Please model this.
Amino acid sequence: MTLSHDRLTKTLSVPFRYYECIGSTNDAALDWLEHDAPVGALVIADEQFAGRGRRGKSWQTPPGTALALSVILCPGARWLSRVTMLGGLAVCELAESLGCEDVSIKWPNDVQIAGKKVSGILCEATWSGERLCGAVLGIGINVRTDFQGSELAATATSLESAVGARLDRAQLAGDLTNRILHWQRRIETDALFDNWRSRLNVLGQLVNAGGVAGKALDVTADGALLVIDEFGEQHTSHVGELAPLARAGKIQ
Model:
């Protein structure tokens, strides 16, 4: 079904603003946050032409093909790093509820199905001095984009391709938002961290994380990746591109 304000009214349980076309849902949500948006409020668009990923990457959402949404949250400052965690976990659970198999998280913020990217996540926050005013959790999900025959065929997929059925994007938005708010209420718990960690597909793998080559050992409670290099030195990576390491060298 077509994404529309009327359809979303029936599936969403939170205040929301819907745009047929927008530059960035995160920008609109950050602006709403600065003007007293309620916690859990949602900005959603059918088309997004200037969306952002991590490290300045773009995420464009053609009309009728995807979910582009941003949820306004208010975690404690010490739990801000877990907003990305709960977003990834919520997307994984949504995909699994549809019958998708081999759903995992590529650290730190991509959700994959059978090793192909289906969703990207970006958390942005606003501060007043040292006080956290709030956070915006931006999520883009490929719903019905057909990547076959494109240059992205080997690295990207969509929910409809994975399940082999037509999906209702308004219903997906409602289900995803409910899962986000479920985990937001549990942001301080081990359950959130453990469920997120269990879906990571990098642990035990040889990787290059932000320029550090080594074996991914584990993650910290705030989501940083622990990597041990060939000299046995341990590194902590909070951000950075993650790529498979072609040669093991001396790393065991």
In short: The longest strand covers residues 116-128.
